[in-house]
Design brief:
The strands form two sheets. Strands 7-6-5-8-9-11-10 form a seven-stranded mixed beta sheet. Strands 1-2-3-4 form a four-stranded antiparallel beta sheet, with helices on one face. The chain starts with 7 loop residues before the first helix and ends in an 18-residue tail after the last helix. The chain folds into two domains: 219 residues, Growth Hormone, Chain: A (Up-down Bundle); 227 residues, Rossmann fold (3-Layer(aba) Sandwich). It has 537 residues and is an alpha/beta fold. The protein is elongated, with a radius of gyration of 29 Å. Helix 1 runs antiparallel to helix 2, helix 1 runs parallel beside helix 3 and helix 9 crosses helix 10. It has 16 helices and eleven strands. Homodimer or homotetramer. It is a multi-pass membrane protein. Catalyzes the irreversible transfer of a propylamine group from the amino donor S-adenosylmethioninamine (decarboxy-AdoMet) to putrescine (1,4-diaminobutane) to yield spermidine. This is Polyamine aminopropyltransferase.
Length: 537
């Protein structure tokens, strides 16, 4: 084989640079699949486990298959990188398309994990062959029989492997940090994956066409050039039309009434309706608020906890402002503090005409104060106490919310309650996911609370639930389950003497809901803790 057209040390450095770039791109593909799978399917722990375990297995398969290409390592690496750039770059686009138009993306997710894993696994054996080629067949004696420094490393295969893997691991570090801090917030999932694919194709193609072009026949060089040019053309075309694709896919998922669709630093926020009908708020594809029935939910959530002193109210979550609206209806409410993680949700709830009207312009009320923080962390350092704490947080069946339904979290909430104060928790559907609901109740009791379970009817029959994947189905929940808790005697369900006129809630309906809930109580529920979360979809 011909000697590379660059000095051995320069060739070695270029190979290691390619290893660095390709490793960064490979990890971005992995994280992209995990993030998109968690968003589209839910249960992030399960999806991350599936993607990573399948991918690691496939990497082993790819390493074995690459043995057949090592005799033609240059052209093999060029084609492998072109394929990886195409598959990895388009993976997010195809996954989202299958979800939007077919409603199911699990099998596609596994397929991409396998394909990307095989291609990543094939990289290292080929790169090992290439880095050994950088010194050429004449490595050893040169000139007057003296070895050069450039050749010395050729006699140290262990050092070569160490350098190769060091570049690979450092590249993975850079890719892992670039995904959440640069690609995702600046470009989004689709464009970020496409751009990563383009970088991958350029890095792989440039390495073999420059440093190892003498190892390839004219036909092989033409094949690598054509493959990379085609991949770059496909990625560029997809990037140019990604906005149109997102709009069409969003309409397929949410319908034709999308008015607001933004990607905040935390999640995708979509608002539909609001002009010809009630608005709907979706957070990461999950239906969080529906103007059709939100009053039934928020009245049942807030008003039972307002029976007693309610001058200081703390709302954990509830960035839509609807729980605050209900608390502010009481003349005895002196302050309402909303602790919300995502400023984008509050911004939309404050400025969107339909949502602002729905929440009664709660954020214009001088009694309302907003704190942007993680509820768990904020409670750990919170000063002062509250008469009422309303836990209006994402469903406990969502893995990322598990810590907000743990016994430790409720212990922190107990410390923030004033004497005689009440905590009310949204605990998920009582009839469709009873084990999740009663795990919340067991966690509250483990934190020292006395509890009173109750619920309210869910969305009306025939109501379009939209792409709510919390329960793995698009069906509307039959009910919402709540738990009223105090650190003293078991609380009594009822309404405050100064309660405003309510549309859906009465003392009689509360008592009936409590009796129905108690009849379903199991005997064997174990509390959920930080080290042993017990929630799931």
């Amino acid at each position: 084989m011909a000697r590379p057209p660059v000095r051995p040390r320069a060739g070695r450095s270029l190979v290691l640079a390619a290893v660095f770039v390709c490793a960064a791109c490979g990890l971005v593909y992995e994280l992209e699949l995990v993030a998109l799978a968690s968003y589209l399917i839910g249960d992030s722990v399960t999806q991350a486990s599936v993607v990573l375990s399948v991918m690691v297995f496939a990497m082993g398969v790819g390493s074995l298959l690459a043995k057949r290409l090592c005799c033609r390592a240059a052209v093999g690496f060029g084609l492998v990188e072109a394929a990886l750039a195409l598959v990895g770059g388009c993976s997010a686009l195809v996954l989202y398309a299958t979800f939007a138009w077919m409603g199911e993306s699990r099998y596609v997710l596994v397929g991409f994990s396998l394909a990307i894993g095989v291609l990543i696994g094939a990289e290292i054996p080929l790169l090992m062959s290439l880095i050994q080629r950088t010194s050429g067949p004449e490595a050893g004696l040169r000139g007057r029989g003296r070895r050069t420094d450039d050749d010395a490393s050729d006699d140290d295969p262990a050092g070569t492997v160490a350098e190769l893997f060091a570049a690979d691991y450092v590249g993975a570090l850079v890719g892992g940090l670039a995904f959440p801090f640069l690609l995702l917030p600046w470009l989004g999932q689709l464009t970020g994956a496409l751009l990563t694919g383009a970088v991958n194709a350029v890095a792989g193609g440039a390495l073999v066409l420059w440093v190892f072009r003498r190892d390839m026949t004219p036909r092989s060089r033409a094949l690598v050039v054509a493959a990379n040019a085609t991949v770059l053309a496909v990625l560029a075309t997809a990037t140019a039309h990604v906005g149109e694709f997102e709009g069409a896919a969003r309409r397929a998922v949410y319908g034709d009434r999308v008015r607001v669709a933004v990607q905040t630093e935390m999640q995708e926020v979509v608002v539909t309706g609001g002009l010809a009908g009630p608005p709907e708020l979706f957070l990461d594809g999950r239906l969080r608020v529906s103007g059709h029935d939100e009053q039934r939910y928020h009245e049942a959530l807030v008003h039972p906890a307002m029976r007693g002193r309610h001058a200081r109210v703390l709302i954990l979550g509830g960035g839509d402002g609807l729980a605050a609206r209900e608390a502010l209806r009481y003349p005895g409410t002196a302050s309402v503090t909303v602790v919300e993680l995502d400023p984008g949700v509050v911004r939309i709830a404050r400025t969107d005409p339909a949502l602002a009207k729905l929440n009664g312009h709660a954020y214009r009320d001088r009694r309302t104060r907003v704190v942007y923080a993680d509820a768990f962390r904020w409670l750990r350092s919170a000063s002062g106490t509250y008469d009422v704490i309303v836990s209006d947080l994402p469903d406990p069946g969502i893995t990322t919310s598990a810590k907000l339904y743990s016994a430790e979290f409720y212990g922190l909430a107990a410390g923030a309650l004033a004497d005689g104060g009440r905590l009310v928790v949204h605990a998920g559907p009582l009839t469709t996911r009873p084990r999740t609901y009663w795990t919340v109740e067991a966690s509250l009791r483990a934190a020292g609370f006395a509890t009173r379970p109750y619920g309210t009817r869910g969305r009306a029959s025939g109501f379009p639930a939209g792409p709510d994947r919390t329960g793995g189905t698009r069906a509307a929940p039959a009910d919402w389950g709540f738990i009223l808790a105090t650190t003293g005697p078991r609380p009594t369900l009822g309404l405050a003497p100064d309660a405003p006129r309510l549309r859906t809630l009465t003392p009689a309906s509360l008592r009936t809901a409590a009796r129905l809930a108690d009849r379903t109580r199991p005997d064997d529920m174990i509390p959920s803790t930080l080290v042993h979360p017990r929630y799931g979809n």
